[in-house]
Amino acid sequence: MKKIEIENNKIRDVFVLIPLFNEAPVLKGVITELLNYFENIIVVNDASTDDSSDILRSLDVILLEHSLNLGQGAAIRTGFRYIRKFTDAQAVITFDADGQHSAKDAVKFAHGILTGNDMVIFGSRFLGSAIGVSVYKKALLKLATLVTSILTNLALTDTHNGLKAFKRSALQYFIFEIDGYGFESELIRKVRKYNLSFSEMPTRVEYTKYSKTKGQKLSNAFIIIENIIKTWRQ
């Protein structure tokens, strides 16, 4: 098994990839916490209209920027392409910018993906804990998980959790066609299609006052389901 590489008491060969759109109020805190553990953080700014870009330029991160807002799937696609072409990363962890994820969980995922045999590790708040989640939000997540599991024939407990880990060799399979939230289901379909080994790890997700004010529109759930069906038909 490969040993994880540490430099300056930080993980060096597992990169953290953060898709970003308008998270200025919490962004510095999220990045600062991750920098305690990780040497390399890539942020894809998906044409934020707040102060996110200025904040990022003051931090020790690799900043990639979209001139137009394309969606989370497009941001992940940009990050994966950059990692494959321009870095020596052995693995990558995707991490949301809104402050809901735990940096300590990311460290666990880094060790798991680099020292284990799985190509992909999915985070699951339903195997771990979801603090402050509303009944409404939980229902949307469960619905998306159920539809995705049925259409992809891949049993997962949480299909729209932003915390995931990928071996470098797996990135070639994930060139997403769906730019928005539905890319999560496209990702799962590709895991199934290419028979990639995977596992789930419990995560701690905390729905803060800040994240709750952003909300989750019902229309987003229908967009996700529509994209799931489109992906399944491909």
Description of the molecule:
By secondary structure, the protein is of the alpha/beta class. It has helices at residues 24-35, 52-57, 72-86, 103-115, 135-152, 183-193, 209-214, 218-233; strands at residues 6-7, 10-11, 14-20, 41-45, 62-65, 91-94, 120-131, 164-167, 198-206. The protein has a 7-stranded mixed β-sheet with strand order 5-4-3-6-8-7-9, sandwiched between helices. α2 links the parallel β4 (41-45) and β5. The chain is globular and about 45 Å long. The termini are far apart.
Total count of helical runs of at least 4 residues:
8
Q: What's the arrangement of strands in the largest beta sheet? A: 5-4-3-6-8-7-9
- Which spans have pLDDT < 50 for at least 5 consecutive residues? none
Distance between the termini: 36 Å
Classify the helix fraction into a percent range.
Answer: 40-55%
**Overall geometric form:** globular
Could you report the average pLDDT, rounded to the nearest whole number? 87
Based on secondary structure, the structural category is alpha/beta
Strand composition percent? 15-25%
Question: How many β strands by DSSP?
Answer: 9
Radius of gyration: 16 Å
Largest sheet: 7 strands, mixed
- Assembly state (oligomeric): single chain
Order of helices and strands: EEEHEHEHEHEHEHEHH
Brief overview, please?
With 234 residues, the chain is an alpha/beta fold.
List keywords for this structure.
7-stranded mixed sheet, 21% strand, 234 residues, two-stranded antiparallel ribbon
